[in-house]
Write the structure tokens for this entry.
Amino acid sequence: MDLFKRSVETLIESWVYLASGSPGAEVRRVEGAAIAAFVHQPDREFLNNAVLGRRPVDLDATLAEIEATYTRHGLERFAVWVHESDAATAAALLDHGYRFDSATRTMAMALDAPAGEGPGTEVAPSTVEVAEADPAEFWAVDGLDGLLPELDPSGAQFYVARLEGESVAMLMAFDHDGDCGIYMVGTVEAARRRGIATALSAHAVSAARERGCLSASLQATAVAERVYARVGFRDLGRWLEYVPGPI
């Protein structure tokens, strides 16, 4: 439960960090939820999410705050996240006219082993170079040029994996209160299934341990779950993502 709570706080604070680099963006904390609203393009295509607390006190009021926030910013597309353990809230979202869209799995791990021991120490294939990157190289890996144009890169660690001099994988590590959140992970299609994402994640975990972080957390797609499990991350349940509108 402690790892889960830490992962949620790091997630929300990472949204605050990303919003600092996106013109017109804001992150609001209201009773029962945290709301990230991004209006800049292409940021708005990926980052408009609201995460519900476990069993909000008043779901009607919380949803009203969420919807009012996005309406005020002229945003129609957004997702509301609820943990799978809260089946009653998930069912209530359906009753409010939302529909299930997708899911990611919360995963976390304690970093209590000394550097060089335990999970998170896998090395990259010998043909791969793992390095820190500037924003231009980082966003270009996933074709996201122009994302978060005002972001101060000193607020996080931006890693790329280079294969024969070409950047083929990316990962952002964001620290908050002793937890390292791992986000923005991607690998170009031609370089997948070579262990590059596993090694890049392990590198980020090892570096976080060296910085003094006590834990690491992330949200994994179904495809990536086994990658993170090999690094040492444990399953903390799924976030179910609901969007407004009919099926």
Summary: Residues 39 and 73 are 7 Å apart (CA to CA). Residues 108-235 form a domain with the Aminopeptidase fold (CATH 3.40.630.30). The mean pLDDT is 92. The helical segments are 2-19, 59-72, 87-95, 135-141, 196-210, 225-231.
